[in-house]
Design brief:
With 422 residues, this protein is α+β, with helices and mostly antiparallel strands. The chain contains 12 helices and 18 strands. The longest helix has 23 residues.
Length: 422
């Protein structure tokens, strides 16, 4: 590509505009299921800038936004993807007592950084490639292939279980998967998420299990609770569950070591964690509960299936002697992209043009989570994950403004690399 063309595009990447867009999106609170205002904002932005957006939504109040910048013909198409939803709703105080804290729901500038959950994951990153597309348009660049912009809902896990059912409780079927099933595809795709400018093309899948830990029946009134007993022999299902949790923790470390998956696109370390518990009623705690439910998040590699994981989990629990039944309620497969090498070469070239050296591979946590790349890879679209900033999953709520601007430049260069010039 001509250096003059690239510099002409870079000249139209306005840092102030980029920051303004990122903060505007970051200040539209959009926990999963409540993305409507953010969706409307990106739709209006695309419309105002002549990108001809469309709404594609499983639910009318939280639509995905898709825009296509048509190429002149003869080139390959590239799809940019980021998600509109954020991780914490204000009422989720059993996840964190700081559920309503400002960093989870608003965004602001501190010197050379932007602060906010929504900035880091994932609307600040979204703003970078939106800005790149605008710079290409303003520079008068005519691409040969189509460039697709996809701003989707429902990337954050919100899975139906028990009384928590659709339409209020559903995520991933409404987002990237919905637009792919509506025909939004491309030759190549980039899922723009925080990787600290590392490049990867593998992500974990996941299998969720609901464990029914049983205590004695009927429940015992507290004055009748026998002492002493062993943990596994207690009539109280909550007490018995502690033995089950310990067994899961001991198995989990062995599980992740045995199933670690390494490939050129990154390393998947499949973690397991007990992340929710339900038992008894807090307003009536005079009796030992006969049931305690544990909810287990087990990550899986592209080589694993949920049935083998369930068998391992059941075997680990059986050693406690506690009566437990295991019920799977979520399965989402993980993938390593196939045939992705030409896209990898182009990302590496664009990255090197802007940053001066090829990108590395991300830390294991980045490739051990579930991202929308799995949807596009499952649909047969070679996909990479690449973007500025560290993941919010490790407790990061800050993004360097310089990183956002750099990302916009890389994405603009990548669009030219992949789609070609007319």
């Amino acid at each position: 590509m001509s250096a003059d063309v690239l510099e002409g595009v870079f000249a139209h990447i306005d840092e102030d505009e980029l920051v303004e867009l990122a903060l505007a999106l970051g200040n539209l609170d959009s926990p999963t299921g409540e993305e409507g205002a953010a969706s409307d904002h990106v739709f209006a932005w695309c419309e105002a800038n002549g990108f001809g957006p469309k709404r594609l939504g499983l639910f009318p109040d939280r639509a995905n936004v898709v825009a296509r910048i048509p190429g002149a013909g003869g080139g390959q198409s590239l799809l940019f993807n980021s998600h509109l939803d954020t991780t914490i709703a204000k009422e989720e105080t059993l996840t964190t007592p700081r559920a309503a804290a400002p960093e989870h729901h608003t965004a602001w500038r501190e010197g050379d950084r932007l602060i906010g959950n929504g900035i880091v994951n994932n609307k600040g990153v979204m703003a970078t490639w939106m800005t790149a597309c605008l710079a290409l348009q303003r520079a008068g660049v005519q691409l040969a292939g189509d460039l697709l912009m996809t701003m989707v809902v429902g990337e954050i896990g919100l899975e139906p279980v028990d009384e928590f059912q659709p339409p209020e409780y559903i995520a991933k079927e409404a987002g990237a998967r919905f637009i792919v099933n509506r025909g939004v595809t491309a030759d190549w795709a980039v899922v723009a998420e925080g990787t600290s400018f590392a490049l990867c093309w593998v992500e974990a899948g996941k299998a969720f299990f609901k464990l029914h830990v049983r205590g004695d029946e009927p429940p015992l009134y507290t004055p009748y609770v026998p002492r002493p007993t062993g943990i596994a022999d207690s009539p109280n299902a909550i007490v018995r569950a502690t033995a089950v949790i310990r067994a899961i923790e001991e198995w989990a470390y062995d599980y992740e070591r045995r199933h670690t998956y390494r490939c050129e696109g990154g390393t998947v370390v499949p973690k397991v964690s007990v992340n929710a518990v339900r038992s008894g009623v807090p307003y009536k705690i005079t009796k030992t509960p006969s049931i305690c439910e544990l909810f287990v998040d087990a990550r899986i590699t592209p080589e694993q299936d949920p049935r083998s994981v369930q068998r391992e989990l059941e075997a680990a629990i059986a050693a406690t002697g506690v009566p437990v039944t295991v019920e799977p309620f979520v399965y989402r497969r993980g993938y390593e992209a196939v045939g992705v090498e030409p896209l990898v070469e182009r990302v590496e070239a664009a990255h090197a043009k802007v940053i001066g050296e090829p990108p590395g591979r991300p830390i294991e946590a980045i490739t051990s989570m579930w991202r929308d790349s799995n949807v596009f890879i499952e649909a047969g679209i070679p996909t990479v994950v690449y973007g500025p900033g560290a993941s919010v999953g490790g407790g990061n709520f800050a993004m360097e403004i310089d990183a956002l601007t750099t990302a916009a430049r890389v994405y603009a260069a990548l669009a030219i690399e992949v789609c070609g010039l007319a």
